[in-house]
Structures are given as C-alpha cells and as structure tokens.
Design brief:
The chain is mainly alpha-helical and about 100 residues long. It has one domain. The chain has 2 helices and 2 strands, in the order ββαα. It is rod-shaped.
Length: about 100
C-alpha cells in the first residue's frame, strides 16, 4: 500500500519499500507469509472465542427465560389449587355470616 510519502508500506509486517517491485517481492517472501499465517490463526482464534461467548450468553438467556416461564406456570398452578372463596370468619363457615 502506498503511503503519503510515496513509498510502499506493508502494514502487516511494518516494512517500508522504495518501489513496487520490492514491495511485491516482500509479499511473496517468507516473513510476510509467516505473518499472514499468524494473523490468520489470530483471526480464527478470535472468531472461535466470540462464538463461545455468544453461545454462553445464549444459554444463559435460555436458562433465565425457562426459569421465568416455570415460575409463572408454578404461580398459575398454585392459584388454580387455592379455593376462590376463603372463609371470612374463624368458624370456617361458607355462609356470609359476621362472627363477633
């Protein structure tokens, strides 16, 4: 890549070249190829790490979602099991008497 000084610069290897031929020779050389290999592995490692983090967050979200749904289902079942009319007085009568 040409920089503002008119020289060719490899940003991967941080090298400067006076002409295009020197730059092209550098890109075919061992040092540049090794740096491409290392950079490729670094990108792949970052991608794998991001996938693992995403999967962990996804599983955490699913866990929270399932626990909230289970809690709501449990609350609905408990509400169904409790009688609607509770006795008002201590004598446990069903009528609407007022016990003193």
């Amino acid at each position: 890549m040409k920089n503002h000084l008119g020289k060719y610069e490899c940003k991967l290897c941080l090298t400067l070249h006076n002409n295009e031929g020197s730059y092209l020779a550098h890109t075919q050389g061992k040092r540049h190829q090794d740096n491409l290999y290392v950079c490729g592995h670094a990108v792949l490692s970052c991608f794998i790490l991001l996938c693992l983090v995403f999967c962990a967050w996804y599983l955490f979200f699913i866990h929270i979602l399932v626990s909230v749904i289970c809690r709501r289902i449990r609350a609905i079942k408990e509400a169904k099991d409790t009688p609607l009319m509770k006795p008002v007085c201590a004598c446990a009568c069903v009528c609407a008497c007022v016990c003193v």
